[in-house]
Specification:
By secondary structure, this protein is an all-alpha fold. It contains 13 helices and no strands. The longest helix is centred in the middle third of the chain and has 52 residues.
Amino acid sequence: MNFDNLHQILQNLYNDMMPLCSDMIGVAKGLAGLGALFSVAYRVWQALSRAEPIDIFPLLRPFAVGLCIMFFPTIVLGTINAVLSPVVKGAHTIMENQITDVQALQAEKDALEYDARVREGKAWMVDNEEWDKKMEELGMWDTPEIIMMWGERAWYDIKEWFRQLIRDFFELLFNAAALTIDTLRTFFLVVLAILGPIAFAFSIYDGFQATLTQWLTRYISIYLWLPISDIFSAVLSKIQELMLQQDIALLRDPNYIPDGSNGVYIVFLIIGIIGYFTIPTVAGWIIQSGGAGAYGSAVNKTASKAGGIAGGVAGSVAGNVGGRLLGK
């Protein structure tokens, strides 16, 4: 599954849904016009009844909001996206600068692991050609040694298969967590963008003025999920790079024999899974948006439960399989 294509699909979805804002502009203009009439009439009547001069400046607010509604995709969404776009590009640049050729480092590590097996005298455990050569060298009188080699290699293959199964499972959860955050971000932005003109129209009415600021803060806060996610991905990539470099440094020691364990890498994936669900909280630290805290708290609790369940599943599966293997 190519998760990069799925993220690109979400980005294209946001761009394709933006024209739907125009469908709400007509309704919003009607609400805004009615609200402007009531707001202006109320303030003018209030000033006349008190024999006070009419303050013109507050009366301009409904017309300014109405102007934003008429040109909502250009004035509002266009301005916000243009201002925040450099932030997104800057965070993406940080991620690209931190990401190294992990595949090259992994290939180097695999080669060093093979060399370590050769030094140990057990290259036949990881290389089929060496296994065939070793079998040709042994004769009928070496049957006990052949049985021992077969059992040792079978046990090694079972352990490698189980480690790869656990690793693939947590890698899938890791990518699914990132895709979940991106999907929620796209959904929230699309809803805020399509219904934005309605929110602006209601902000004209007395008692609903805070709707405008709430919409702006929530849109900006959710928009920042993407650059925060890129920065978090850069941190994770750097950690993975340092882990591979450390493993390579150990494998270059002639006396070091690898155990093939992926325990540290799995723990790193679990941390990454939980970390992705803290992105809404971090965004709330940057742009405080009222009403988003409850969602962030719920997401964090869900992430903690998911991490606990994932760790419990991995531990129970490992214990079950390991117990059966040892029992046999």
